[in-house]
Amino acid sequence: MDMIVIATRLEALGNPTRLAIYRALVRAGAAGLPVGKLQERLAIPASTLSHHLAKLCGCDLVSQTRESTVLRCRANYQVMRDLVGALEDECCADAACGADVGTDAAVA
């Protein structure tokens, strides 16, 4: 995965409000949440939510679909897996690691 794409996605998730939005959508599962329900759940103004959703959609972490008068938001799980996988793939790339990397790398 391209470093600029990784940085853009991590930057988007680096904002506490966007992280809360993304977390709510991840927790909602494949059905996602209507924008109104998301706004209600997070107790943030509509304009603030719209601004942050635009940033998350812009880097493909979130998708939106229109269902009549409802705008439904969903976390893009494949993009999330790719992002985490790209970081995980780098684990100990420049070091001779043993099989027990998981616990030692997390502590360091």
From TrEMBL:
<keyword id="KW-0804">Transcription</keyword>
<feature type="domain" description="HTH arsR-type">
    <location>
        <begin position="1"/>
        <end position="95"/>
    </location>
</feature>
<dbReference type="InterPro" id="IPR051011">
    <property type="entry name" value="Metal_resp_trans_reg"/>
</dbReference>
<keyword id="KW-0238">DNA-binding</keyword>
<dbReference type="InterPro" id="IPR036388">
    <property type="entry name" value="WH-like_DNA-bd_sf"/>
</dbReference>
<keyword id="KW-0805">Transcription regulation</keyword>
<dbReference type="GO" id="GO:0003700">
    <property type="term" value="F:DNA-binding transcription factor activity"/>
</dbReference>
<dbReference type="Pfam" id="PF12840">
    <property type="entry name" value="HTH_20"/>
</dbReference>
<dbReference type="InterPro" id="IPR011991">
    <property type="entry name" value="ArsR-like_HTH"/>
</dbReference>
<dbReference type="InterPro" id="IPR036390">
    <property type="entry name" value="WH_DNA-bd_sf"/>
</dbReference>
<dbReference type="InterPro" id="IPR001845">
    <property type="entry name" value="HTH_ArsR_DNA-bd_dom"/>
</dbReference>
<dbReference type="GO" id="GO:0003677">
    <property type="term" value="F:DNA binding"/>
</dbReference>
<protein>
    <submittedName>
        <fullName>Helix-turn-helix transcriptional regulator</fullName>
    </submittedName>
</protein>
